[in-house]
Predict the 3D structure of the following.
Amino acid sequence: MSDLLRDSVFYWTFSSTTGDAYTGYTVADTVSLGGLPVGALLPSPYGPAFGAYTVTNIVNYEVDLSAHFGIGYYAEGATVLSSYYDANTARSLPTYYGSQGIPTTYGGLGEEFDFVPVPFFGIPGAQPGGYFEVGYGGYYLIA
């Protein structure tokens, strides 16, 4: 939803305490970031036992992105997971929606999720060729 305030896109990496990680970006009103610096650590909304987000880049725009482009992909809170790193296999995997640039939530950090392809190894009970869900501030990586 457009609010006509200037927007920023901030990029982040979520590092789980299990060693798994995923990267993505979130759209926010520039003013709501309140001077958030690159390198800032933001704890999982489920607590530090789940992991933390590290801000890796911030791009500020002079316009409200959703009003400028006229589509919801750029609405405040739009969050995209772009890749997932599996520590057990040391493999990076593409995300289903993120690889297409499609946000899976407009709720911001802690609400992010996506699906990654199940490799032929390492996931008990998972069927190769399927997908498993990751996200929610590390909740699905530990729970």
